[in-house]
């Protein structure tokens, strides 16, 4: 059986981890298979959980969150018969039995940035990140590029919640940051902040502005207020990994972008009325160009800086 | 005349308190729809029936021995050091700096250097509250609580702005050099055909903790300083009469206490993570309070209580792994142990004392 | 910083100061009566959880409030039992209560809602509405005072106004009523109260009970006023900041208001401006985070006006050894 | 008023604190309109008995009758309703409250304070005039002298319209003038028909003011007699259980060289009060200098300064060597090294660590001596042997050095302290209250030891509140009053009356005693 390990934010963070959970659920429903899952509570537990699952014969052992990359690197060699999968992680060398899956978040963020700029009437859009790490700057950078592509004069305000993992789980701060950005004129705010984002979306709904969700489809949380969600198809990744089972190809990096449907934006009944056909047309056009290579969204990782946004 | 024989005070009271805590914990497990007996079996199985389980149990116990001793030493001078967490955090910083910036040729030297740095940083972090208590009468409980938060902010700053390798996602230092990695129990005891302690973090620091137990015992019951610390703890006026300076004892006891708490970092950073992560102390500073209370501030008691909590921690992790019982159950058990052995001590003691007084009268 | 930004920062200060103020006043009652309470954090947390849980299930924020208060008062009762009835160590009891709340909230939340230790988001009647004070709209045009009234004073939830009203009320109770006189006396010299024929135990339990109620309101405000639901560990150290504020305020109600507003302001500023650039010198956000604690240590050290706690504080009242 | 029904009657009161039986089956009757004295040694159970009557402690057994009616007194409220007021040995006042607030506490009128305060202000003014009990109603207690604090306690009782007033050792902390004032007030109260119970150690006071007197010993009531039909000697005998013979056999002193020279010694305590106001005295080898004085006039401070745990200014020379009076080298261990031993006044809080075993206590203060060390550690065997010797020589019972100090009786605790200090053979021995709460047999032994030390050529500074003890032991007597020495006297050429006047601050004793 496969096993799934969530990161500290927990299974029901309405975001990243929940996307992983949804993928696993879908797999279970479609195949009738069973899987084991667990939420992390502390750093020291990571390696322990990996080992215990490997020893108990689970494979693949799928982990959500970059922080598992190092522990996997440590344990992979001890359990050659077990396949390990990690989402978002990076290792200089990928061991034989490990698969690392990454997403082109900047591409998806670019698209929702465009939508934000088209929606904004105040010419100001906001971004609220969780913990200030390169990954989140990577999100913000794509978002800012998308917004500026639509409207070069637009102001993009960006705030990070904090510098420690606690920043992923502080909705009170999310609310205050959202209020601050609204005060500065923002009328669309993109939250890439895990549980903190719940506070951001809530506040946007309370204050009558638009918000953009992240990772999972969060449109349903405040129908009519959540403009869209930047989908990071962690669910697909988990689904694929589980489906792969024993035959899963490992020892490599897998990168999922727009082309692979690994990222995207969500349109459903909750936000259909918010997004006009013109908006969809513009975004679909950009999406096609990105896939074809005609349009390049600069990655923050390329040289640890962003052409469209100062941090 | 004592109301109760010493053995009752040292063993019977904590034992009954512990049973009460265990009973309530069982009720909690029942309330969330699980079977306490199965849960207990699972914990025993995961923590004690496999060598790697022992490896985790002993790893956690090592942390708790240090922080428990830290609280105990301060208690002997009637100082409630609630700042073990902050002191351990600073200890981690000290150990990290020693490992990252000094080219140690071999782990045996690195552990000495790292331990020294960890103890020194922990002690220094305890020094300020100690000084303020001794010289200005600032309540040490409040100042050490404040210093826990200040330590967290400080470590956060240092990790994020100074020690984090460029491009890293986590607020953590780079990995320590190979030569500072301490031998784990696996390195020491596993053979080719018997992979003992595989993958578990227990390491040579455990022996350091045992040595610390012996040294603390010698210190408190066999040295002049310990004699003076206890005297001060029992009666400050008498201590002053005897020429024992309260300022000196307060500061020295807190330095030792902070140093012991800091030593915890040798286990957690050098022994386990092999780098410094943001919450390296993981609450062990607070568990030290429970450990010291249960262990009646005696190193042997602390050792036993630390093993018990190590078992709870590892067993709790196993529970979380295989059942729907969240790991927070351990926090609840810990709270109940502190409540019954510490705060509600008299609830058990008063009736017992009555019983003994009556028995003697009869 | 322009006027509007300033208003917003102050507005945020009011919101962030409210839970601090309620918890601080809670601690004030307890500690003025001689029972130290480092369990403010735990009581708030428990209240936050149960108020959110009940508000979600019933859809009534009022029922949520009462449930939150009940949870907090229950922990207060444990504290009272340990430190008043059984004359245990008040600090240890406080530590235990903090752990108990941290563990139980997640345990129960997980068992109840199966959402990883959080409650579902509250909607509609499960949350406190912001109250728009009369004429806020019409007056907002008036320069300076208009926006201050409309933005800063108006538009908070009921509990914010309750918190601020508690300050003069607490002052009046402590210094103008029989109950207040006895309460202060029992924190200074319980034997004087005892020999005056008033029950020390009764008074202390009353104080601890009030402390529980106020902590309950504080927790409810966090989960159902400031936020729309409970998440694990959502008090995030606010109980300890409130404790710091209490010392900073030297156990006095009006000073408590000042201290909580100051600490709230620090949080509001730290949130908006991660690193503050003071003409070349950059103050890192971590300094802002730690400032309440640092200030408290400075006050405790007696370098800036000494904080003298109630004389009998922290000691159980023991007549017979 | 019915003169045949007692105002108070206690029947068979018993009370145990854990294993300590503080009161054993005590019965007592107090007639209305009288002053009833209670005497007894320290720890005899006087305070306990009165606290039971006042509802502070709960008796294990026994009955209380007030004016003939059986009354339950489960708490102080009940006692107050029954018309009982009590002034405790240790005042029960809220230090940072005003006098007025303290007076109304627990006796407020209604839920708000305004009314109560203004009413109390009026009543207080009345009482002040009626009984010469004036205190500033708005002063904070912490700013008042002990005498005034005591007035507040009495006012508290009178404000509650107490008919029965209990005073527990009210004069222990008062100057003679204040004590006289208090007695005048008590006289007035008695004249008004109030009933008063007065606990005291001072036989003089008993003889002076009481109508009847009860004697307690070891938790039991040994006798109740009419004051007019007894004598101090008889009372003393009743108190301790056998004839008291406070004479010590000793040869005349042969004072030698000046060992200790004290000049202009001054000390300010933690509350900023000057406790020593320029003390000068010499102490010679082979003499016992007794210091007499009412408690609280600086004797304790003098011992603490000389013992090294209170800072002072001025000059103290030991064999001509200047001793530092503050900072490094001025602590207790430095003094011990210099050759000054010290038996402190309070064995429970200073002389002993009650939780330490006897052998640990036997080196307390000398624990840094090389003879008790073995390398880095303490040499427990050596210390035990040492302690066993002391215990044997001083006849400490039980002779078990592994027993915690708290498990010895007061007298035996005192012997442990004495053994420790005397066996050191210090050049100078400071002794405070050597026989407080100690039984007669032990007193004789302790006195012998002190005299033996003197005869060996040591200098002894003795502080005692017991004038009899001062007379019995001293070769020279100094009287302290208000932080100063009022004069030196030769015990053979003075008497208790003269010393009493000096203790009250009257220097012109010859005139006063004749006039
Ligand atoms: N609160 C208490 N708890 C335990 N034991 C007590 C308490 N109060 C008094 N005792 C013990 O009870 C006995 C009688 O004490 P009590 O205070 O009544 O004596 P007393 O006659 O008033 O003495 P003194 O003259 O010293 O005031 C003593 O052995 C004392 O140690
Ligand atoms: N407050 C107290 N707490 C505990 N034990 C006490 C207390 N007061 C007295 N004791 C114990 O009670 C016993 C009797 O003590 P107490 O001082 O009354 O003895 P005693 O008969 O008066 O002897 P001595 O004449 O030598 O003082 C002793 O064992 C003593 O340790
Ligand atoms: Mg007494
Ligand atoms: Mg005695």
From TrEMBL, chain B:
Q: Name one GO molecular function term.
A: transmembrane transporter activity
Give the membrane topology, semicolon-separated if more than one: Multi-pass membrane protein
Q: What is its main location?
A: membrane
Keywords from UniProt, A to Z, are: Cell membrane, Membrane, Transmembrane, Transmembrane helix
| Residue intervals passing through the bilayer | 57-75, 87-104, 110-128, 140-160, 204-221, 249-270, 276-295, 302-323, 329-348
Q: From what superkingdom does this record's organism come?
A: Bacteria
Q: Where in the cell is it found?
A: Cell membrane
- GO cellular component, as recorded: plasma membrane
Q: Sorted alphabetically, which Pfam families does this protein's record hold?
A: BPD_transp_2
Tell whether Transmembrane helix is among the UniProt keywords: yes
Name of protein: Nucleoside ABC transporter membrane protein
Give the originating organism.
Answer: Thalassococcus halodurans
Automatic annotation (TrEMBL), chain C:
Return the Pfam families for the record.
BPD_transp_2
Task: Supply one GO CC term from the record.
Answer: plasma membrane
Enumerate the GO terms in the molecular function aspect: transmembrane transporter activity
Under the heading InterPro entries, the entry gives:
ABC_transp_permease
What are the TM regions of this chain, as residue ranges?
65-84, 91-113, 158-175, 196-223, 254-270
Task: Could you list this entry's UniProt keywords, alphabetically sorted.
Answer: Cell membrane, Membrane, Transmembrane, Transmembrane helix
- Superkingdom is Bacteria
Where does it reside? Answer: Cell membrane
What topology does the record note for this protein and the membrane? Multi-pass membrane protein
Q: Which CDD domains match?
A: TM_PBP1_transp_TpRbsC_like
PANTHER family listed in its UniProt record: GUANOSINE ABC TRANSPORTER PERMEASE PROTEIN NUPQ, SUGAR ABC TRANSPORTER INTEGRAL MEMBRANE PROTEIN-RELATED
This one is known as Nucleoside ABC transporter membrane protein
According to its UniProt entry, this protein's organism is Thalassococcus halodurans
Automatic annotation (TrEMBL), chain D:
**Record membrane topology:** Peripheral membrane protein
Do you know which SMART domains this protein is assigned to?
A: AAA
Keywords, A to Z? ATP-binding, Cell membrane, Membrane, Nucleotide-binding, Repeat, Sugar transport, Translocase, Transport
Where in or outside the cell it occurs: the entry states:
Cell membrane
Keyword Thylakoid set for record: no
- Ranges for the ABC transporter domain? 8-243, 260-507
Q: Does the keyword Repeat apply?
A: yes
Q: Which InterPro entries match?
A: AAA+_ATPase, ABC_carbohydrate_import_ATPase, ABC_transporter-like_ATP-bd, ABC_transporter-like_CS, P-loop_NTPase
Chief subcellular location: membrane
Q: Which Gene3D superfamilies does the entry link to?
A: P-loop containing nucleotide triphosphate hydrolases
Record's Pfam families? ABC_tran
Matches recorded under SUPFAM superfamilies: P-loop containing nucleoside triphosphate hydrolases (SSF52540)
Q: Would you say which domain of life the source belongs to? A: Bacteria
For this UniProt entry, the molecular function terms from Gene Ontology, in alphabetical order, are:
ATP binding; ATP hydrolysis activity
Q: Name one GO cellular component term.
A: plasma membrane
Matching PANTHER family: CARBOHYDRATE TRANSPORT ATP-BINDING PROTEIN MG119-RELATED, GUANOSINE IMPORT ATP-BINDING PROTEIN NUPO
**Family, per the entry?**
Belongs to the ABC transporter superfamily.
Name of this chain's protein: Nucleoside ABC transporter ATP-binding protein
Highest lineage ranks of the organism? Bacteria, Pseudomonadati, Pseudomonadota, Alphaproteobacteria, Rhodobacterales
């Amino acid at each position: 059986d496969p096993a799934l390990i969530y990161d500290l934010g927990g299974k029901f963070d309405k975001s990243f981890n929940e996307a992983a959970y949804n993928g696993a659920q879908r797999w279970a429903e479609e195949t009738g298979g069973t899987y084991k899952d667990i939420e992390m509570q502390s750093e020291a537990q990571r390696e322990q959980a990996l080992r215990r699952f490997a020893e108990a014969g689970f494979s693949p052992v799928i982990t959500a969150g970059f922080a598992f990359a190092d522990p996997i690197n440590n344990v992979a060699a001890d359990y050659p018969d077990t396949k390990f999968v990690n989402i978002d992680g990076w290792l200089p060398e990928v061991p034989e039995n490990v698969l690392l899956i990454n997403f082109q978040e900047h591409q998806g963020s670019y698209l929702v940035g465009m939508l934000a700029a088209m929606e904004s009437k105040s010419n100001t859009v906001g971004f609220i990140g969780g913990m200030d790490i390169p990954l989140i700057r990577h999100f913000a950078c794509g978002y800012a590029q998308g917004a500026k592509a639509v409207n070069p004069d637009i102001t993009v305000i960006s705030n990070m919640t904090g510098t420690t993992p606690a920043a992923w789980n502080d909705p009170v701060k999310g609310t205050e940051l959202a209020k601050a950005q609204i005060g500065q004129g923002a009328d669309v705010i993109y939250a890439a902040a895990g549980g903190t984002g719940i506070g951001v979306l809530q506040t946007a709904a309370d204050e009558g502005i638009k918000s953009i969700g992240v990772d999972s489809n969060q449109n349903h949380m405040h129908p009519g207020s959540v403009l869209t969600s930047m989908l990071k198809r962690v669910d697909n990744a988990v689904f694929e990994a589980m489906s792969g089972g024993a035959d899963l190809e490992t020892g490599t990096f897998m990168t999922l972008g727009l082309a692979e449907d690994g990222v995207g934006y969500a349109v459903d009944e909750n936000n259909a009325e918010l997004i006009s056909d013109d908006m969809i047309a513009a975004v679909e056009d950009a999406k096609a160009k990105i896939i074809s290579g005609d349009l390049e969204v600069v990655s923050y990782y390329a040289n640890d800086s962003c052409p469209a946004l100062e941090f | 005349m004592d109301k109760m024989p010493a053995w009752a005070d040292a063993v019977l009271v904590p034992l009954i308190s512990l049973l009460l805590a265990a009973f309530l914990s069982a009720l909690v497990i029942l309330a969330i729809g699980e079977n306490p007996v199965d849960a207990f079996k699972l914990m025993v199985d995961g923590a004690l029936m496999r060598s790697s389980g022992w490896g985790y149990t002993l790893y956690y116990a090592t942390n708790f021995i240090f922080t428990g001793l830290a609280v105990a030493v301060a208690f002997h001078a009637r100082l409630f050091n609630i700042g073990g967490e902050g002191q351990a955090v600073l200890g981690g910083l000290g150990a990290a700096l020693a490992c990252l910036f000094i080219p140690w040729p071999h782990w045996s030297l690195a552990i000495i250097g790292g331990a020294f740095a960890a103890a020194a940083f922990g002690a220094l972090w305890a020094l300020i509250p100690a000084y303020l208590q001794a010289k200005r009468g600032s309540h040490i409980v409040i100042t050490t609580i404040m210093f826990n938060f200040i330590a967290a902010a400080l470590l956060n700053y240092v990790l994020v702005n100074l020690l984090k390798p460029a491009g890293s996602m986590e607020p953590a230092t780079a990995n320590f050099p190979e030569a500072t990695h301490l031998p784990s129990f696996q390195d020491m005891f596993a053979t080719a055909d018997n992979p003992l302690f595989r993958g578990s973090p227990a390491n040579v620091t455990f022996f350091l903790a045992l040595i610390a137990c012996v040294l603390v015992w010698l210190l408190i019951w066999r040295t002049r300083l310990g004699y003076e610390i206890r005297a001060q703890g029992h009666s400050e006026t008498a201590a002053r009469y005897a020429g024992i300076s309260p300022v000196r004892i307060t500061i020295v006891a807190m330095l030792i206490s902070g140093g012991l708490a800091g030593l915890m970092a040798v286990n957690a950073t050098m022994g386990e993570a092999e780098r410094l992560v943001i919450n390296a102390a993981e609450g062990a500073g607070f568990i030290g309070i429970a450990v010291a209370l249960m262990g009646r501030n005696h190193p042997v008691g602390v050792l036993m209580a630390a093993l018990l909590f190590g078992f709870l921690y590892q067993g709790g992790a196993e529970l979380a792994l295989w059942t729907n019982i969240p790991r927070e159950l351990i926090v609840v058990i810990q709270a109940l142990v502190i409540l019954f052995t510490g705060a509600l001590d008299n609830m058990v003691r008063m009736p017992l004392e009555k019983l003994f007084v009556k028995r003697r009268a009869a | 910083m322009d006027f509007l930004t300033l208003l917003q920062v102050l507005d945020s200060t009011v919101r962030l100061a409210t839970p601090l103020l309620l918890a601080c006043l809670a601690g004030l009652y307890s500690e003025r009566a001689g029972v130290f309470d480092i369990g403010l954090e735990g009581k708030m947390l428990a209240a936050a959880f149960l108020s959110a849980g009940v508000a979600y299930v019933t859809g009534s924020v009022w029922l949520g409030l009462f449930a939150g208060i009940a949870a907090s008062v229950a922990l207060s009762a444990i504290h009272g039992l340990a430190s008043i009835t059984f004359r245990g160590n008040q600090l240890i009891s406080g530590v235990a209560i903090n752990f108990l709340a941290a563990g139980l909230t997640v345990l129960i939340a997980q068992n109840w809602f199966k959402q990883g230790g959080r409650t579902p988001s509250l909607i509609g009647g499960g949350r406190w509405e912001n109250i728009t004070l009369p004429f806020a709209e019409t007056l907002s045009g008036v320069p300076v005072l208009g926006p201050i009234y409309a933005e800063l004073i108006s538009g908070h939830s009921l509990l914010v106004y309750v918190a601020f009203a508690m300050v003069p009320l607490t002052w009046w109770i402590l210094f103008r009523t029989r109950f207040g006189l006895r309460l202060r006396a029992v924190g200074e010299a319980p034997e004087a109260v005892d020999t005056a024929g008033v029950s020390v135990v009764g008074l202390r339990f009353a104080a601890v009970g009030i402390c529980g109620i106020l902590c309950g309101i504080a927790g409810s405000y966090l989960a159902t006023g400031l936020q729309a639901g409970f998440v694990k560990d959502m008090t995030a150290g606010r109980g300890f900041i409130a404790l710091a504020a209490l010392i900073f305020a030297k156990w006095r109600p009006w000073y408590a208001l000042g201290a909580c507003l100051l600490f709230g302001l620090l949080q509001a500023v730290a949130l908006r401006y991660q690193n503050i650039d003071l003409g070349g010198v950059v103050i890192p956000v971590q300094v802002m985070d730690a400032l309440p604690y640092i200030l408290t240590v400075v006050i405790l050290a007696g370098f800036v006006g000494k904080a003298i706690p109630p004389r009998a504080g922290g000691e159980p009242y023991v007549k017979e050894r | 008023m019915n003169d045949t029904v007692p105002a108070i009657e206690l029947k068979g009161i018993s009370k145990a604190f854990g294993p300590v039986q503080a009161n054993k089956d005590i019965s007592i009757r107090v007639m209305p309109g009288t002053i009833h004295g209670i005497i007894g040694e320290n720890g005899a159970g006087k305070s306990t008995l009165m606290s039971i009557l006042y509802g502070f402690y709960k008796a294990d057994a026994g009955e209380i009758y007030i004016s003939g009616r059986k009354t339950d007194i489960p708490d102080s409220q009940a006692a107050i309703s029954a018309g009982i007021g009590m002034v405790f040995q240790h005042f029960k006042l809220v230090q940072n409250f005003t006098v007025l607030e303290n007076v109304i506490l627990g006796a407020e009128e209604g839920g708000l304070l305004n009314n109560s305060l203004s009413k109390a202000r009026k009543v207080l003014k009345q009482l002040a005039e009626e009984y010469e009990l004036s205190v500033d109603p708005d002063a904070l207690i912490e700013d008042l002298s002990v005498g005034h604090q005591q007035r507040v306690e009495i006012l508290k009782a009178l404000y509650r319209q107490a008919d029965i007033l209990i005073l527990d050792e009210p004069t222990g902390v008062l100057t003679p003038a204040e004590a006289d004032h208090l007695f005048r007030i008590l006289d007035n109260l008695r004249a008004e028909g109030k009933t008063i119970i007065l606990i005291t150690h001072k036989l003089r006071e008993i003889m002076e003011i009481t109508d009847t007197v009860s004697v307690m010993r070891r938790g039991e009531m040994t006798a109740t007699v009419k004051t007019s039909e007894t004598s101090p000697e008889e009372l003393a005998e009743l108190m301790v259980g056998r004839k008291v013979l406070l004479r010590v056999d000793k040869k005349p002193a042969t004072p030698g060289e000046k060992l200790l020279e004290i000049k202009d010694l001054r000390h300010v305590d933690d509350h900023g009060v000057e406790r020593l106001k320029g003390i000068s005295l010499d102490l010679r080898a082979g003499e016992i200098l007794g210091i007499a004085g009412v408690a609280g006039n600086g004797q304790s401070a003098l011992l603490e300064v000389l013992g090294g745990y209170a800072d002072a200014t001025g000059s103290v020379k030991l064999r001509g060597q200047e001793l530092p009076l503050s900072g490094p080298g001025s602590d207790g261990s430095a003094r011990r090294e210099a050759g000054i031993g010290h038996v402190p006044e309070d064995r429970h809080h200073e002389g002993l660590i009650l939780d330490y075993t006897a052998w640990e206590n036997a080196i307390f203060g000398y624990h840094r001596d090389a003879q008790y060390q073995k390398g880095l550690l303490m040499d427990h065997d050596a210390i035990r042997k040492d302690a066993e010797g002391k215990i044997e020589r001083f006849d400490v019972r039980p002779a078990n050095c592994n027993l915690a100090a708290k498990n010895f009786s007061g007298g035996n605790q005192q012997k442990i302290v004495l053994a420790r200090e005397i066996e050191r053979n210090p050049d100078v021995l400071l002794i405070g209250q050597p026989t407080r709460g100690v039984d007669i047999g032990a007193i004789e032994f302790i006195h012998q030891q002190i005299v033996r030390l003197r005869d060996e050529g040591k200098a002894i500074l003795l502080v005692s509140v017991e004038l009899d003890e001062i007379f019995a032991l001293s070769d020279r007597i100094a009287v302290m009053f208000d932080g100063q020495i009022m004069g030196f006297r030769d015990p053979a050429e003075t008497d208790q009356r003269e010393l009493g006047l000096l203790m009250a601050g009257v220097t012109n004793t010859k005139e006063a005693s004749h006039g």
